[in-house]
Amino acid sequence: MATLNVSFVVHLLCVIVLYPVVYAKCSDQKEQMYNLSQTRQTLNDLAMERRPRGCIPEAEMIMVQRPTLSKEEVEKVWTLRLAFQLASELFQQNLTLVKWNSIKLRDLQDLLARQYMTYSECVRDMRLRQNLPIGDMVKNYFKQLDDFLSRESFSLCSWEVVRTEMGSILRDFYKKSKMPRKHV
């Protein structure tokens, strides 16, 4: 086990030396924060109302276990890559019943896809392992959202509930990604 950890550290150091631009982009907390913030804002902009009254029964039916974002950079990058991949796939599904602004929806889809590609590049270049324990939690979370949408026949209300839920997890990711503030 110690050999594996040493080789991983050596490999990670090589990645930092050989791929400094990619590593800098992947570990740039300001860019991560900006992208998370933009995605969250775009998701919120889709809302027709703060909390559609007719969707309360659907909102009460959804029960999902949210994954948490690791403090370790390697796991955080992997989690974000997987989350943006699955979110991108989710928001490409049956959207015929939603009444969202089509331009804002396209912006959201583009943001999700762009972040997925960015983190995919990080994962590929850092040669991260795909069997991190958080992976199953992230996959299960998005499967629960997908199952909920399917059960509710991709109704307007089910999409509003999922949109709100996605906003919550992005807020959690944003808070976990925040740089510690320096006290002066």
From TrEMBL:
Record GO biological process: defense response to virus; immune response
Alphabetized GO MF terms: cytokine activity; cytokine receptor binding
Entry superkingdom: Eukaryota
Entry's localization field: Secreted
Signal peptide positions (record): 1-24
InterPro entries: 4_helix_cytokine-like_core, Interferon_alpha/beta/delta
Keyword Cell membrane found: no
Pfam families assigned to the protein according to its UniProt record, in alphabetical order: Interferon
Swiss-Prot/TrEMBL keywords: Antiviral defense, Cytokine, Disulfide bond, Secreted, Signal
Main subcellular location of this protein, as a coarse class: secreted
GO cellular component: extracellular space
Matching Gene3D superfamilies: 1.20.1250.10
Family: Belongs to the alpha/beta interferon family.
Protein name, as recorded: Type I interferon f2
Taxonomic placement: Eukaryota, Metazoa, Chordata, Craniata, Vertebrata
